[in-house]
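can u do me a favor
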């Protein structure tokens, strides 16, 4: 992980995390995909920023041209219903839609896209970071922690720069997080301890550049 900024607001937003999708059943013949995600910690996203929501169709095509922007929502919003998509009667097996999101801050800077998440007609789903042999059940919060993830959110102030280190691990165990500069040299070892499964966070103070 390498970080050097004169102003944290000059950096693009961090990658959105934990995108999930489930089905909202309005009737026996009408279901809409519902997306949820973890909001970014950057103040210029959470206050006046936004999220761009994109869907891939047809689902089996991986070309960038198959992704279409559907909507943009405020940066403090963490859920969205795809009212444009009506899953088939009884939400039958064999139909799916894939989604991804990206953050947009007040400077007009965009994050990289989140991992995509596909929702199937029967209510199951598959995430981009999951191994091909596994399926995550849509709406199952355990799916949030199937893989390890680490992200760093930087918050500037006049004297020092505060950074919040956030991680998610699938099970209890030893957790070690080290930070390296652009030359591959270790510059910090902020976390080296036992950690419980799920999400944790720690506040760091970064020296000004």
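np, heres the sequence
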């Amino acid at each position: 992980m390498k970080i050097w900024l004169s102003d944290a607001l000059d950096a693009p937003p961090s990658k959105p995390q934990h995108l999930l999708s489930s089905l909202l059943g309005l009737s026996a013949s009408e279901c809409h995909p519902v997306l949820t995600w973890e909001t970014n910690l950057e103040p210029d996203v959470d206050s006046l920023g936004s999220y761009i929501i994109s869907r891939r169709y047809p689902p089996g095509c991986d070309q960038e041209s198959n992704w279409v922007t559907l909507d943009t929502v405020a940066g403090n919003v963490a859920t969205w219903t795809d009212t444009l998509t009506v899953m088939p009667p009884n939400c039958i097996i064999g139909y799916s839609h894939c989604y991804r999101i990206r953050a947009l801050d007040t400077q007009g800077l965009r994050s990289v896209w989140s991992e995509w998440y596909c929702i199937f007609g029967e209510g199951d789903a598959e995430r981009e970071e999951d191994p091909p042999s596994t399926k995550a059940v849509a709406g199952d919060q355990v799916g949030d922690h199937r893989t390890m993830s680490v992200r760093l959110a930087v918050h500037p102030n006049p004297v020092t720069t505060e950074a919040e280190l956030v991680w998610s691990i699938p099970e209890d165990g030893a957790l070690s997080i080290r930070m390296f500069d652009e030359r591959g040299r270790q510059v910090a070892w902020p976390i080296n301890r036992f950690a419980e499964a799920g999400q944790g966070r720690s506040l760091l103070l970064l020296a000004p550049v």
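The two ends are 16 Å apart (CA to CA). hope that helps!!
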